[in-house]
Write a structure and sequence with these properties.
With about 180 residues, this protein is of the alpha+beta class. The chain has a domain of about 100 residues: Purple acid phosphatase-like, N-terminal (Immunoglobulin-like). Helix content is about 20%, strand content about 25%. The protein has two helices and ten strands. Strands 1-2-8-5 form a four-stranded antiparallel β-sheet, with no helix packed on it. Strand 3 and strand 4 form a beta hairpin. The longest helix has 22 residues. It is globular and about 45 Å long.
Length: about 180
């Protein structure tokens, strides 16, 4: 490919990126990972530690559960079968509501996954902090999230997106930056 075509392509990409940013009037982080080859974290890293307790919830994460932002899907994995329930409320440690969901498991060649739980929390209020717990008894784990603001033409909406994070020292730095940036 000629140098002129490469330069023209880069200018078009830069123009489109600039247009998209101006159009959304958003802001992006200036954070960039280093370009050098990443070094894998050792399996003994505390970042890979399995939560303590019998059948404790692992890999807990959230997904927006509807188009309006009034639902959240809580997903987690347990090594043994357990109830797919989430207890939640608007005050830390006080769970006024309970939602039930489904459990799945898959096999791929000689690998069988843990039990994957999916529970949808519906009819949430906009711009509200919710506390939730997964698991039962003394090994239950508590987390929180904030729902998005009510939608409108000029409503700001802050979110973060990380794809294929990996398991390296750079991954850990990227995740820490993400947590500090309130994405």
């Amino acid at each position: 490919m000629s140098r002129g075509i490469v330069l023209t392509s880069l200018l078009v990409v830069a123009f489109l990126a600039g247009s998209a940013m101006a159009e959304t009037a958003g802001r992006e982080s200036l954070y960039m990972r280093r370009l050098a080859q990443s070094i894998d974290l050792p399996l003994s890293s505390p970042l890979f530690a399995v939560p303590k307790g019998k059948n404790a919830a692992q890999q807990v994460h959230l997904t927006q559960g509807d188009y309006d932002g009034k639902a959240v899907i809580v997903t987690w994995v347990t090594p043994s079968h357990a109830a797919s329930e989430v207890h939640y409320g608007i005050k830390k440690g006080v769970y006024l509501w309970k939602a039930k969901g489904a459990t799945t498991q898959y096999t791929y060649y000689n690998y069988t996954s843990g039990y994957i739980h999916h529970v949808t929390l519906s009819n949430l209020q906009y711009n509200k902090k919710y506390y939730y717990k997964v698991g039962t008894g003394k090994y239950a784990r508590e987390f929180w999230f904030v729902t998005p603001p009510a939608h409108g033409l000029d409503t700001p909406y802050t979110f973060g997106l990380i794809g294929d994070l990996g398991q390296t020292y750079d991954s850990a730095a990227t995740l820490e930056h993400y947590l500090q940036s309130y994405g």
